[in-house]
């Protein structure tokens, strides 16, 4: 499955000011790493969001969010947000902020 290049561009624009930001293609998706830790990604037209285990229940209660089970096993601390739920820049920025809050507390790799 190819990833949505438009969403990838929007993420790159929003995250461009972060130091130590990199991207990596993985399993047909594109992920953004901050200080070596996965932060967000694009899978098809959906956003992969790393919100952390403690914020996962709240994240799943948001419109368009669902469990991330790419491998057939749910990944704790991760959600997938449908593309329609992040079509507005404000909604995308809210998700990025959730992810940054969690990943900022992780030690660099």
TrEMBL record:
Domain TfoX N-terminal: from-to ranges: 14-101
Keywords: Methyltransferase, Transferase
InterPro entries reported for this sequence: TfoX_N
Keyword match Membrane: no
Keyword Methyltransferase: yes
Family matches, as Gene3D superfamilies: YgaC/TfoX-N like chaperone
Origin: domain of life: Bacteria
Molecular function GO labels: methyltransferase activity
A Pfam family that the UniProt record links to this protein: TfoX_N
One record GO biological process: methylation
SUPFAM superfamilies linked to this entry: YgaC/TfoX-N like
UniProt name for this protein: RNA methyltransferase
Organism, scientific name: Lentzea pudingi
């Amino acid at each position: 499955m190819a990833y949505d290049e438009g969403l990838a561009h929007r993420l790159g624009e929003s995250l461009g000011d972060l130091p130590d930001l990199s991207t990596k293609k993985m399993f047909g998706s594109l992920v953004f790493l901050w200080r070596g830790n996965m932060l967000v990604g694009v899978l098809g037209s959906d956003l992969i969001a790393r919100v952390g285990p403690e914020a996962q229940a709240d994240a799943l209660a948001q419109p368009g969010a669902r469990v991330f089970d790419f491998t057939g096993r749910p990944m704790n601390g991760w959600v997938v947000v449908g593309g329609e739920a992040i079509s507005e820049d404000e909604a995308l920025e809210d998700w990025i902020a959730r992810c940054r809050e969690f990943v900022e507390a992780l030690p660099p790799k």
